[in-house]
Design brief:
814 residues, 43 strands, seven-stranded mixed β-sheet
Length: 814
């Protein structure tokens, strides 16, 4: 959708199935639902997992009354699978989904896992979630989210079966993901051939249970009255912004009356009032001002830090929790930017699907340093809507300010390539010109008339200003019509994001409403948002609004949501290069901050130990995507006083004390500082150019293209005792908040043609890891790929189990 998914999302397959029982069984009507989810994995593991999942899917579909569907990467839409579909077609669909999920980052995978559990919780009967993945390295935040998923699955009777085909983690699997399986009544298996049998065993041991979304019929006011009161030490605001699953359901409306032209007119009932005949798909938003948090400062290091936890809960009409999400948020940056940070807001956003019914939304924010918290509850209702076309809820927004706002989400709100921040409790100041910006999504009848829009501003029920709004986009792309199966690129557009902007308006103090009316043919929909203007001075009610007010045109269908990064192919991410360019002065400041952090990176790290797990894959050059595992090993990495040392503990699943130099093949090192310095050392004089923004590890980053020539490079490769230095070019991803490097991606060049290794590419991803009560930015995973003769060698490495290491010493008196 064009409310852009700024965060790269995982590809996964969803299979919904009826219970395998004889046709005469009374339990058959209760049904069974299962989702197969594909996550990060090596080439061979993902292929084996996909084939095993496809076989299990065909088995489910062979049972009378069973249904199944397959979901594509980054989409909540589902492709139904028919029982008569050829086996090769089903297997290919699963192989494609597994391939797309191979390189997803851990945070994205967990978000998809959470979304899959949410989808299952809507269904009655047996609920089964099958996760096919090699257990990824998780940050402390990722561990917290995984624990939340375990608790959510337990409370909603969702059994989880984990398939981890990798050999490298044979000794470590059984940690977090084993708890996910066994803690929910499921299991963890390592043999793809045993997946179907394990599913049948887990299913046979499960009892059917009622969907927690079923209402008890208890009056909503009684439920709210029986809930414990929420703390009020921190100001918190919440909003459910509905977005349509298709073009035939109307959202955000309260009343429907006959219009003079014979059509239907619907009026928005205000925040969290929903009228629809189907499930609600929307964005659950939480907002809290950062000025309310306590910030710790370190004058010696020149940094600030704050810690908060945001929790979202949706309760059904009986008060039972049917959906819950929680995220610990860490704010860290240079002390000189603290004042700007305090002027911003903390946002938390998750996409949620709720069946029709009555709900209570609950949001809390905890200040983990000050030990105080705040919360708020809002009702959410459903009812009848208007057929034909629909419009999402309207939302007052402003441009996203990375220096002030902190956005934690499974997607970023964007319009026309620019990130935007929601305003859940909008306030403006009297007699100060400002831009009034209202965001919504239009879902028109593609074969109907061109939509017409108008905006009214009301105060105390009286209209104080009007403006016509243009709608210039075409509803249909004639080039892709004419029958046949349309491609994802050429398919018709169903939703049209719209940003109405009144520039330079001025209002006197008071309570206001902005009301947008969208007409298509004889039908009209109205969306209303409230805002207030503060101050005492008198003045004109509306200084600048009317026919000439500016309104941003809807995003064009031909605009690419994300341009895929093709450098290098070893570990791609998605880059949004269509955003407004970062000002030159901000580019220089961001580069300077990152340089200072990178050059002092090693000095700020504690002494620690971790497990370094590496899988080495090979593939023919002519078929470089057909990797198979050559070997795997686990090392204990000790980082002490800025130096790395390695001790082999396992080779190919067997305990080993083989020294690293005796392990033939390709190795890498230097992830704990050397790689960063290779870009930022002053003598390198790296050429850099800002190129766009991207999400990596759940963090919005500015991306710079970089290039280092051979004579300035320390990208050293060794082959048969011969060393050569490669120049490189690639991309560096900077955390906008603190100027920290979150990801580096390099491609080497300039190696002699007679050297045994060619075309080296390297990717390294960082995440926040907690060691001895402190948060540190540390490597989570790396990928190194080279061409060696007629084969491609690929090392996939994960860093796990970080823990503090303290060297001991003793003095003996002889």
């Amino acid at each position: 959708m064009d409310m852009r998914m700024g965060m790269r999302t995982i590809a996964f397959a969803c299979l919904l199935c009826a219970r395998i029982v004889p046709a005469a069984s009374p339990d058959a009507a209760a049904g069974r639902a299962a989702i197969f989810l594909f996550g990060p994995a090596g080439a061979e593991s993902s292929r084996q997992g996909a084939r095993a999942a496809a076989a299990a899917g065909r088995r489910w579909l062979s049972q009378p009354g069973s249904t199944a569907e397959l979901r594509r990467a980054g989409s909540m839409d589902a492709l139904p699978l028919e029982a008569g579909t050829p086996a090769k077609s089903v297997e290919q669909a699963f192989l494609d989904a597994a391939h797309q999920g191979r390189d997803t980052d851990p945070d994205t995978f967990l978000s998809s896992l959470d979304a899959a559990a949410q989808s299952l919780a809507h269904r009655s009967g047996l609920r089964l979630l099958v996760a096919v993945t090699e257990e990824p390295s998780l940050s402390s935040e990722g561990e917290n989210l995984l624990q939340h998923i375990v608790e959510f699955c337990k409370s909603n009777s969702i059994r989880v079966v984990v398939l981890d085909p990798a050999e490298v983690s044979s000794k470590t699997a059984g940690g977090s993901f084993k708890a996910l399986g066994e803690g929910t009544g499921g299991t963890l298996t390592r043999d793809p051939k045993a997946l179907e049998a394990n599913i049948l065993i887990v299913s046979a041991g499960s009892k059917l249970s009622e969907s927690p979304y079923a209402s008890s019929g208890q009056p909503e006011t009684t439920v709210a009255a029986n809930l414990p009161s929420l703390p009020t030490d921190l100001p918190v605001h919440t909003r459910f912004v509905r977005i349509s699953p298709n073009g035939s359901i109307a959202f955000g409306t309260q009343v429907s009356v006959s219009a003079g032209r014979g059509g239907l007119t619907t009026v928005d009932g205000g925040p969290n009032v929903e009228n629809t005949t189907g499930p609600m798909r929307g964005l659950f938003l939480v907002e809290s001002p950062l000025s309310a948090l306590r910030f710790d400062t370190d004058d010696n290091a020149g940094t600030y830090s704050a810690r908060a936890r945001v929790t979202q809960i949706a309760r059904n009409a009986s008060g039972k929790i049917v959906w819950q999400a929680s995220k610990q948020v860490i704010l860290h940056g240079p002390l000189r930017k603290l004042n700007a940070r305090r002027e911003g807001n903390l946002y938390y956003l998750r996409e949620v699907v709720l069946p029709a019914g009555k709900y209570t939304l609950e949001a809390t924010v905890e200040d983990l340093i000050a030990g105080k918290s705040g919360g708020v509850r809002e009702p959410l209702r459903t009812g009848m809507g208007t057929p034909g076309f629909t419009v999402s809820d309207a939302l007052l927004v402003r441009p996203f300010n990375a220096a002030a706002d902190k956005f934690e989400a499974d997607q970023i709100l964007q319009y026309d390539g620019n990130a935007i921040s929601p305003m859940l409790d909008p306030e403006y100041h009297a007699n100060e010109p400002f831009d009034l910006q209202i965001y919504l999504i239009i879902y028109p009848d593609r074969y109907g008339a061109q939509p017409q829009l108008s905006l009214e501003v009301l105060r105390n029920g009286h209209v104080v200003g009007r403006s016509a709004l243009p709608f210039t986009d075409k509803l249909r792309n004639e080039a892709v019509e004419g029958g046949g199966m349309s491609s994802m690129v050429g398919e018709q557009k169903h939703e049209f994001p719209y940003l109405a902007t009144l520039r330079g308006v001025q209002f006197s103090p008071g309570e206001y409403q902005a009301r947008i009316t969208i007409r298509q043919g004889t039908n009209a929909l109205t969306r209303v948002v409230d805002f207030r203007v503060l101050g005492n001075a008198p003045g004109a009610v509306l200084a600048s609004a009317g026919p000439n007010a500016a309104a941003a045109a809807p995003a064009r269908a031909e605009d690419d949501e994300d341009a895929a990064v093709t450098l290098p192919e070893v570990d791609p991410v998605h880059l949004n290069s269509g955003v407004a360019a970062l000002p030159a002065i901000d580019q220089r400041r961001l580069w300077e901050d990152a340089t200072a952090s990178a050059l002092s990176y090693s000095s700020h790290l504690p002494n620690f130990r971790c497990r370094r797990e590496t899988r080495r894959l090979t593939a023919p050059v002519k078929s470089s995507d057909r990797f198979h595992e050559a070997d795997a090993f686990i090392e204990e990495l000790t980082y002490e006083n800025g130096k790395e040392s390695y001790r082999t503990v396992e080779v190919n699943g067997q305990k080993s004390t083989t020294q690293r130099v005796a392990l033939k093949g390709v190795h890498s090192r230097g992830e704990f500082g050397s790689m960063l310095k290779s870009v930022f050392r002053p003598e390198v004089a790296t050429q850099s150019k800002w190129t766009g923004r991207a999400i990596t590890g759940g963090v919005l980053c500015d991306v710079f293209d970089v290039e280092v020539p051979v004579d300035k490079s320390n990208f050293v490769l060794t082959f048969n005792l011969r060393q050569e230095v490669a120049g490189f070019h690639g991309r560096v991803f900077f955390d906008q908040e603190a100027g920290l490097v979150r990801r580096i991606v390099f491609e080497g060049a300039g190696l002699p043609k007679n050297f045994g290794l060619q075309s080296p590419t390297f990717s390294l991803e960082y995440g926040m890891v907690r060691i001895a009560g402190q948060d540190h930015l540390l490597p989570l995973r790396s990928v190194l790929q080279v061409r060696e003769g007629r084969q491609v060698v690929r090392n996939e490495t994960q860093f796990r189990d970080y823990r503090k290491f303290e060297a001991s010493s003793e003095i003996k008196f002889e």
